[in-house]
Amino acid sequence: MHIRAFAVLACLAAFALLVLWPGAVGASPPGAVFLVGGTRYLAEDRLIQMDAASFVDGGRAFVPVRYLAYALGVPEDGVEWDGAAQRVALSARGTRAELVVGSRVLTVNGRPVFMDVSPRLLPPGRVFLPAR
Questions:
Q1: Please, what is the Cα angle at 30 between 29 and 35, to 5 degrees?
Q2: The pLDDT of residue 118 is above 50
Q3: Order of strands across the sheet that contains 120-122
Q4: Which pLDDT does position 18 carry in this prediction?
Q5: What is the per-residue burial (b if ≥16 Cβ within 10 Å, else e) of 6-27?
Q6: pLDDT by residue (tens digit) across 20-78?
Q7: CA distance 104 to 112
Q8: What integer pLDDT is reported at residue 8 of this predicted model?
Q9: Which of 33, 61, 103, 106 could form a disulfide with 113 if both were Cys (CB 3.0 to 4.6 A apart)?
Q10: What does the alpha-carbon distance between residue 32 and residue 43 come to, in Å, rounded to a whole number?
């Protein structure tokens, strides 16, 4: 479990640095720890409850995107869900990232970034982002 939790934490740091803080010299992203199989995460010395648990499938940890976004400092109004297109948009500090369920393309400010695993939509209606 500790190795998996570390993998999720490493992914959070990479996601924050690559997507939400591009070019932010000297800025430090908020940190969070998601425990695989758990429905809570630790952020800023607080345990925060989620309505969905992270999980591992095919050697990948999957984390609920909404809670990942909140943990990284994306405000509630910066998380958008388009059910018809099955698209999640995250907006914070002048950066917009879009994920589409089933697509391996993450779009950051209109530029495609390719992932090797696509996000999934699972009950209770949450999109999960693959994390390494």
A1: 125
A2: yes
A3: 55-57, 60-64, 126-131, 120-122
A4: 41
A5: ebbbebbeebbeebbbeeeeee
A6: 444 434 444 557 888 889 999 998 888 999 999 999 998 888 999 999 999 888 999 99
A7: 10
A8: 42
A9: 106
A10: 5
For the chain, where are the E strands, in sequence order? 32-34, 40-43, 46-49, 55-57, 60-64, 79-82, 87-92, 95-100, 105-108, 111-114, 120-122, 126-131
Place of tokens 């907006």: 91
Q: Is 77 helix (H, G, I), strand (E, B) or coil?
A: helix
pTM reported for the whole predicted model: 0.73
Q: Where are the beta strands (DSSP E) in 3-50?
A: 32-34, 40-43, 46-49
Q: How far is the C-alpha of 93 from the C-alpha of 110, rounded, in Å?
A: 15
pLDDT confidence of residue 30: 56
